[in-house]
Design brief:
- This protein is an alpha/beta fold and 262 residues long.
- The chain has one domain: NAD(P)-binding Rossmann-like Domain (Rossmann fold).
- Helices cover 44% and strands 15% of the residues.
- It has 9 helices and 9 strands.
- The strands form 2 sheets. The protein has a 7-stranded parallel sheet with strand order 3-2-1-4-5-6-9, sandwiched between helices. It has a two-stranded parallel ribbon with strand order 7-8.
- The longest helix is centred in the middle third of the chain and has 26 residues.
């Protein structure tokens, strides 16, 4: 039985194209994790807007690899309000709604935690502006379109570093802790219409992990109870599961870390 809010929401959900399951937007969609998330959503039947900021070639390759039709590519910086506004206008004009927003875009660089001087103000601010402010600004830009969606959900790609304080640098760990806190705040603030969750991977095999020596990666595997590191596909499958199956969850953090904290 529908309550009044559900009934109102159902009447204002515009139809989509031939696939019809829903519309998803993935920031940083051309990267290693982002591209797998895009492909998993397309396989599940969603139309996908692949957002990118710099690498058009990778983003286009991601778009070309997607199953189904009527996907789209859009260049926008999540740290620039005008750019985000243009992307929201594009989505509104082309699709009329948004069902899944995946805040995947983020930056970091390896800096030893004890080397405080190496993590200068410029990089600290850059990490916070992208990982934290950019995530919030994207939710703000797409709130009105999410309110038109079908069981809309925001999935913030966080990191186990936000809980453990162990990661590529101090600012990165702090930024992911902030994302998790923001997820809780927004989960409360945007309920009941929009769900907001964090998806928190541990180490993920891919472009970033490739920068480290094999013996260091093996050490991380040995510290993981499930005896392997995550693949980008593990994160992507979790995104789809959260969107489709965990429809009574909000303001929470989903770990995809192989039990690393154990």
């Amino acid at each position: 039985m529908l309550n009044k809010t559900d009934a109102v929401n159902q009447t204002k959900i515009p139809p989509l194209g031939v696939r019809g399951l829903g519309l998803s937007l993935v920031t940083g969609g051309g990267g290693g994790i982002g591209s797998e998330i895009c492909r998993a959503l397309a396989r599940a039947g969603y139309q996908v807007v692949v957002n990118y900021q710099n690498n058009e070639q990778k983003a286009q390759a991601t778009l070309d690899s997607l199953e189904g039709d009527d996907h789209a590519l859009f260049k926008a910086s999540i740290t620039d309000g005008e750019s985000l506004g243009a992307m929201a206008d594009f989505v509104k004009e082309k699709y009329g709604r948004l069902d899944i927003l995946v805040n995947n875009a983020g930056i970091t660089k390896p800096v030893p935690h004890a080397d405080l001087d190496a993590l200068d103000d410029e990089w600290f601010d850059k990490i916070m502006q992208t990982n934290v402010r950019g995530t919030f600004a994207t939710v703000r830009a797409f709130k009105s379109l999410l309110l038109l969606g079908n069981q809309p959900v925001v999935i913030n790609i966080s990191s186990i570093a936000g809980r453990t304080g162990v990661g590529s640098n101090v600012a990165y760990c702090a930024s992911k802790a902030a994302v998790d806190s923001m997820t809780r705040s927004l989960g409360r603030a945007l309920a009941p219409q929009i769900r907001v969750v964090s998806l928190s991977p541990g180490w993920v095999m891919g472009e970033y992990a490739a920068n480290f020596p094999a013996d260091y990666i093996q050490e991380q595997i040995n510290k993981t109870p499930l005896n392997r590191l995550a693949e980008a596909q593990d994160v992507a499958k979790a995104v789809v599961a959260i969107a489709q199956n965990f429809t009574f969850s909000t303001g929470c953090i989903f770990p995809v870390d192989g039990g690393r904290e154990l």
